[in-house]
Task: structure prediction
Amino acid sequence: MYPKLCYHSLTIYANKIKTNPKELATTALNITLKATKSTSRMMIKMSKIPGLMPKEAVEGMTDCIEVINDSVDELQQSIEEMGDIKSSNFGVIMSDIQTWVSVALTDEDTCMDGLKGKPMNTNVKTMLRRHVVKVSHLTSNALALVNTYASTNPASP
Result:
């Protein structure tokens, strides 16, 4: 859904990926995981800066951090499972991975919903939104590539 971001985030891995759909999906998941972890760390740091946000906003941020960390767990689980795929378990594992990445995407949306309407400095809110939206877009792209890989021949994962 976000071709420019997809292209820019994956281009530097072209030699590694070549035309391998499993490698493409795994690389996209790893890029997404890295960005999600980075966003979580940034949010944790921001939530601890005294006076940056009113208490109500910090509570929303804490909830957001929790669901972003859930997203990290789901992405990590997906990456681990990508390494365990065999032709005999392809369908089951790919279904699990598709579910986990979809849930990660929902978590990111939940994070943004939790921050809506919270009193917060406009610059802070803009920065948070920019990071979470980027992670959401990366996750969406990763899910599309996982779905593409899931539709390939399971005899040659």
